[in-house]
Design goal:
By secondary structure, the protein is α/β, with parallel strands linked by helices. Helices cover 40% and strands 15% of the residues.
Length: 316
């Protein structure tokens, strides 16, 4: 009987202890849940996106370290090594046939190189004969940032559309000299509409401030008049005649290379040779006085879609 009387009390004690244990467990889990729920900033180094990127970068670096360790131990890296074909095999059939006519690493005289460029032109159209000259200058320095113009004796084979923005009297003279567009204030209305129907723009110094608001339109296209290019001048007639006669601008790019078109493959060798010699004489005259070391490092000639020909460097 005594056992039966004590039984309910034991059950009550057990229930109470179970309840306390459950509460203790919930209280213990509550901080953990709070710990797992992290708060992130909307942006910056504590944002969720940034933390995920950092974690991904750490995993990438760990995989990279594993690969290096495997290579150092003489084990093969995971995955098959990709097979890359030589660059010449990825070219077209016509290009490959043309390239076979040029001896690799051989330097050619200028005349011989021009003949090869004409002969190895794979295009069906009248391609441009291009010259690519690597210089030993630093374009970041103002005195070594090569930029100039040259009038090719036989032109470059392109029909140049010339526009002139000048006072009415000068505009009339420009039209007589052969300008395609020669206008005063009406020219600004064309630019406001975004109409660019010219390849060269010539302006007088007094009219240059009016073109300032169109710098974003003209600048990226290389059409903004510039005194170094001879397109900001008071002698409008002469500038128009030179532009129509084949005056081209050349400048060094960020990789210290000058690119220029010397004519078309349909030109005679003599015409191309005279154009090339005129350009190289002009380029040689632009050699900076502060330059140490060689001025011209390498010269290559090519057609628009043909293989390149290494030219003998005699212009240092």
């Amino acid at each position: 009987m005594a056992e039966e009387k004590n039984k309910p009390e034991n059950l009550k004690d057990t229930e109470v202890s179970d309840t306390k244990t459950a509460e203790a467990t919930e209280n213990a889990e509550a901080p953990k849940a709070a710990e797992t729920t992290e708060t992130y900033a909307k942006s910056g180094k504590k944002s969720k996106k940034h933390l995920e990127e950092v974690k991904a970068e750490e995993e990438r670096q760990a995989r990279k370290a594993e690969t290096k360790a495997a290579e150092a131990a003489g084990e093969k890296p995971r995955g098959a090594t990709p097979i890359t074909r030589p660059k010449i095999e990825r070219r077209g059939k016509k290009y490959q046939e043309a390239a076979k006519q040029i001896e690799k690493n051989k330097t050619y005289e200028l005349r011989e190189a021009l003949e090869l460029v004409q002969k190895t032109n794979p295009a069906k159209f009248d391609a441009t004969v291009e010259a690519h000259v690597r210089l030993g200058v630093d374009p970041r320095q103002a005195d070594q940032n090569i930029r100039s113009t040259v009038v090719l004796p036989h032109g470059n084979g392109k029909t140049v559309r010339v526009a002139v923005f000048a006072p009415l009297d000068e505009a009339k003279k420009a039209a007589t000299a052969g300008a395609d567009i020669a206008e005063d204030e009406e020219f600004l209305k064309r630019l406001e509409k975004g109409e660019i129907e010219f390849d060269v723009l010539i302006a007088t110094p007094q009219y240059m401030p009016k073109l300032g608001k169109f710098a974003r339109l003209l600048g990226p296209k290389g059409l903004m008049p510039n005194p170094k290019a001879g397109t900001v001048t008071t002698d409008i007639e002469r500038a128009v005649k030179e532009a129509k006669a084949g005056k081209v601008e050349y400048r060094v790019d960020k990789q210290a290379i000058v690119h220029i078109g010397l004519g078309k493959t349909s030109f005679s060798i003599e015409d191309l040779l005279q154009n090339a010699e005129t350009f190289f004489d002009s380029l040689k005259a632009q050699k900076p006085a502060s330059l140490k070391g060689s001025y011209v490092k390498s010269i290559y000639l090519t057609s628009s879609m043909g293989p390149s020909v290494l030219v003998e460097n005699i212009y240092n």
